[in-house]
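Dear colleagues,

As part of the handover before I leave the project, I'm documenting each prediction I ran so the next person doesn't have to rerun anything. This entry is a single chain, and its sequence is reproduced below.
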Amino acid sequence: MKDMVQFVTVTTDPSVDTPEVLRAYGAAHGLDPHNWTFLTTAPGQPEDATRKLAEAYDMRFDPLAGGQQMHGVATHVIDRGGRFAAKFHGLRFDPVNLVLYVNGLTNAPERPLPRRGWWDGLRSLIQN
C-alpha cells in the first residue's frame, strides 16, 4: 500500500518545527519521505497557518506557561476522493485497526472524485 497511501503530519508550533527539525524527526523515527510529508509554515506565512489547518479538522490547542501547548493527537483518514473517512484518537489505538481500515479504502472500488481533492484543500489553508 506504500504507493497508495500518503501520511501528512501538521505542526502547530512552526517557530520550533522548522523544515530541518521535521526532516530530522522523520529520519529519527524511520518515516519514509516517499509517503510521509511534514507541513510547517513557509517564510512569510502567518505563524498560525498550520494551527488553522489543524483546527479545521477539529483539533484544539491551549497555550501553557513557558511556550508549551496542550493538544490532542488524532489520525484523520481522508479517502482518495478527498472525503473525510475516519478519525483515530490518541496514540493508543491498535495500529492493526488503522491498517485494516486503510486497506479497505485502498482496495475499494473507485468512486467519482470531487472537483477539489483533500490535498488541494490542505494547500489552500496553508498558502497565501
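The longest helix spans residues 95-107. Residues 14 and 56 are 17 Å apart (CA to CA).

All the best with the project,
I.
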